[in-house]
Design a protein that fits this description.
Elements (H helix, E strand, L loop, with lengths): L4 E6 L2 H9 L8 E4 L9 E4 L1 H5 L8 H7 L4 E3 L3 H15 L6 E3 L4 E5 L4 H4 L2 H15 L4 E6 L2 H10 L5 E4 L4 H5 L12 H9 L5 H5 L3 H8 L1 H10 L10 H5 L3 E12 L2 H21 L2 E12 L4 E12 L2 H15 L6 E13 L15 H21 L16 E3 L1
Parallel strand pairs: 2-4, 7-8
Antiparallel strand pairs: 1-6, 1-7, 2-3, 5-6, 9-12, 9-13, 10-11, 10-12
Helix pairs in contact: 11-12, 14-15
The protein binds magnesium ion.
The site of magnesium ion (MG) has 5 residues, from strand 1.
């Protein structure tokens, strides 16, 4: 039997929370932006009125002001967004215990077993929209489908405050004409590569030769081809499943062995970035970090340490991992493979309280980095993984093959 999966997406989340708390903002074009005093500050979210002026998420304040000189800009209040995110997810949990958050403003719900109690997927979706609107005062768009990938396409299809059903009967009509970049995990680079062989829509990808796509894009190519055809068996993970994640790691074998400290730093930055964005997506932090090094002669070393502060900030993980790697490695030997793992994982809700206990660490700087990287996640989610890269991973010539 098919599953019934909902993907619930809070519309313009940051802007909606600001407008709900300060109703005077509802009647003017407004946007939430970092660094509002600087022209190169970035738009993080905008309300519907600003959208009508063509204001776009992730563009600079300078560009926004040219389109809409009267726009009201508001600084982000991240603690508030976290608080309201939890409230919204608590509403979802009234309908199923299988609620998997994907970032701060989106969640998947598996309501297959809830239908006898609450009615079919559409009924639950509409009820959730009404409840969130009435109890919290913001709107949610919901996609209802038989897998996670199509449910997510559904929540994006009609906004704000709408329900879209993507079923086995209608998915070709709805999903096939959409650009391939709308598929989960199809980043800008993947989209460009597919475009070069004439694949622009999800339908074109669905009807393409799977082996060809796999040959071109590797493992991800096969997965995306399946996604386009409605094949996605990934379960919705409950909060308990997320708690069971013990570690989040990523390794890579370098096309050319690592010799210099700069190359090492570059590799560590890229790996830290990838594991931290996975941790943030799963709403977890790690309390320790582990580095594993395999030399060109295939001998290996590894070392781990506990952190003074649980984190999912890649700058912090990268620094710890770099110090650890330098402490353990034999500097005369070239490195062939590197793995970084965040260990002793905990749900981020259990990590916050102790911040003030650590007087030796700069908590203000930590929180600032945490906000910066959360915003980077939002922009990447919208524009693909390649949209923002940290300085030291830019223009690397090592040739990184993620495992
Ligand atoms: Mg959203």
């Amino acid at each position: 039997m098919d599953r019934t999966i909902l993907h619930c997406d809070c519309n313009a989340f940051y802007a909606s929370v600001e407008c709900m708390l300060r109703p005077e903002l509802k009647d003017v074009p407004m946007a939430v932006a970092g660094d509002i005093t600087k022209r190169h500050g970035i738009i993080l979210a905008k309300n519907e009125l600003a959208k009508a002026y063509g204001v776009k998420t992730a563009e600079t304040i300078g560009a926004t002001r040219r389109k809409c000189p009267d726009i009201v800009l508001v600084l982000p209040h991240h603690e508030l967004y976290a608080e309201y995110s939890k409230k919204v997810n608590d509403i979802y949990k009234r309908y199923t215990d299988l609620v998997e958050p994907f970032g701060i403003d989106e969640s998947w719900l598996d309501v297959t077993a809830s239908k006898n109690l609450f009615g079919d997927g559409v009924h639950i979706a509409n009820e959730i929209r009404r409840t969130v609107r009435e109890e919290i005062g913001i709107t949610v768009s919901v996609g209802v489908s038989f897998n996670k990938v199509f449910a997510k396409l559904g929540s994006d299809y009609k906004k704000p405050d709408a329900t879209t059903v993507i079923s086995r009967d209608n998915y070709k009509d709805i999903v096939y004409p959409l650009p391939v970049g709308d598929l989960l995990f199809a980043g800008r680079r993947t989209t460009e590569m597919l475009g070069k062989i004439g694949i622009k829509t999800i339908g074109e990808l669905a009807n393409s030769n799977k082996e060809l796509i796999g040959g071109m894009l590797g493992k991800m190519g096969y997965i995306l081809h399946d996604y386009a055809n409605g094949i996605d068996n990934d379960p919705v993970k409950s909060v308990e499943d997320v708690r069971e994640i013990k570690s989040v790691g990523n390794g890579m074998t370098f096309k050319t062995d690592i010799v210099t400290e700069d190359e090492l730093r570059c590799g560590i930055t890229a790996l830290s970035d990838s594991i931290c964005s996975r941790m943030r997506r799963a709403c977890v932090k790690c309390r320790g970090v582990q580095v594993y090094i395999k030399y060109a002669d295939f001998k290996s070393v590894s070392k781990q340490k506990q952190l003074s502060l649980p984190t999912n900030v890649s700058k912090e993980i990268a620094k710890e991992a770099f110090d650890l790697a330098n402490a353990v490695r034999d500097k005369r030997k070239a490195i062939r493979m590197l793995r970084i793992t965040g260990i002793n994982i905990e749900h981020q809700d259990n990590c916050g309280v102790q911040l003030s206990l650590f007087e030796d660490v700069n908590t203000e700087k930590h929180e600032k980095l945490e906000r910066l990287e959360t915003n980077i996640d939002k922009i990447r989610k919208k524009f693909g993984k390649g949209a923002i890269t940290f300085g030291s991973a830019l223009g690397n010539e090592i040739g990184i093959d993620e495992e």
